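Q: What would this chain look like folded?
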Amino acid sequence: IGMTGSGKSTLVKLIPRLFDADKGEIFIDGVPIQEIDIKTLRESIGFAPQKATLFSKTIAENLKYGREAATEKELLDALEQARADEFVENLEDGVDHQITQGATNLSGGQKQRLAMARAFIRKPAILILDDTTSAVDSISERAIQNSIAAHFADSTKLIVSSKISSIKEADKILVIHDGYLHGIGTHEELLATDDIYADIVATQAEKGGVIHE
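A: My prediction, written as structure tokens:
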């Protein structure tokens, strides 16, 4: 978590090697990522980016970019896990619904849910969600969080968010500020020790944000 422009998205993009760090190293299971075959590395990662990129194809075809050999049941399971089934099942063509250029026939929240479903369908060892619930209502977000806990218990999960409610239950929360790690700990630890985190919590509470769901 951190303010806009603090470097959160940049940090997680280093993991699938969308670009490489100028300094320092990243390890997965003790192995530097540069020593891992890049195809193997990326196949082990489910990545839903901050801006959901969907193609002018059907919903099913878009999801299969996550895993080409996915069965219809796996498509439906991924949609349910991302709570995208709530709107897809109401579409006349269901998963065969055609997405327009730029996905202009979907809302922001619908795009985000499909991007998450595409990441979920990979059943990845590492799941990266980059601010993917910013346009999702709090009830659906909580349902998605419960689904992730149930279906991806064995995955390493990295969640970028500007909302405290999205990361409050994480094992470790990293507070990023101006490109640096400002604090690390649980929600309770950071409330007591990190002024930036405490300010974010206070500001969101003042604005009526959902902190303690």
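The chain has a mean pLDDT of 93.
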